[in-house]
Amino acid sequence: MAHSFLPKCSACTVFLFCFFFFVAVAVDAKLVPSQGVLHRPRKEKTSHLHFYFHDIVSGRNPTAVRVAGAGNRTSATGFGDVVMIDDPLTEGPELSSKLVGRAQGLYASAGLQETSLLMAVNYVFMEGKYNGSSLSILGRNTAMRPVREMAVVGGSGLFRMARGYAIARTHSFDAIKATVEYNVYVVHY
Question: Hey, is 128 helix, strand or coil?
């Protein structure tokens, strides 16, 4: 009688082999469900965006308007003021340079001792490869300091699931408007 070195296959053995094989393939491929279709997640990349933010608080066409404020107007920092914005974002520091998007949202004066703003702003891009995409910024902006950092907490379009940070530097400032240079570093798909 000849002996085989191969074990006899049973239906149970075949089933277990197939089950573990497909589990291993699925784990290796990192398949994720998205609207009923399995696909590999896209690779993350880091982008650097550079633009200028123009906050115009007075004049004929202000882009920043105070919508609420504290009853006590004795604070030197404007503590309690809430300002709604729809500020232009441009390629260069001049307001007349190419418009690349809008900063839409609000900032509120949150500091009693120093000018400290709570920023909740969406950078909505209207030009180039990021046209139609947006980034959401949330953080503390100590506006009188030379350099500030705020968090990128999300986004839409090409910036879906974004995270990162924004570095702000005041370019110019007067009673009518502030121009702020932004360098934004964002990780996205």
Answer: helix
Distance CA 20, CA 95 (A): 61
Run of H or E including 58: none
Provide the 8-state DSSP code for 14: H
For 81, the token pair is 């003021």
Give the C-alpha separation, 179 to 14, whole Å.
69
Quote the tokens at residue 6: 């191969």
Structure tokens at 156: 């839409």
Nearest to 44 by CA among 126, 166, 164, 182: 164
Note down pLDDT in tens along the chain; length 189 residues: 555 554 555 655 666 565 555 555 555 555 455 555 555 667 899 999 999 999 999 999 999 999 998 776 778 888 999 999 999 999 999 999 999 999 999 999 999 899 999 999 999 999 999 999 999 999 999 999 999 999 999 999 999 999 999 999 999 999 899 999 999 999 998
What does the DSSP 8-state code read for residue 158? Answer: G
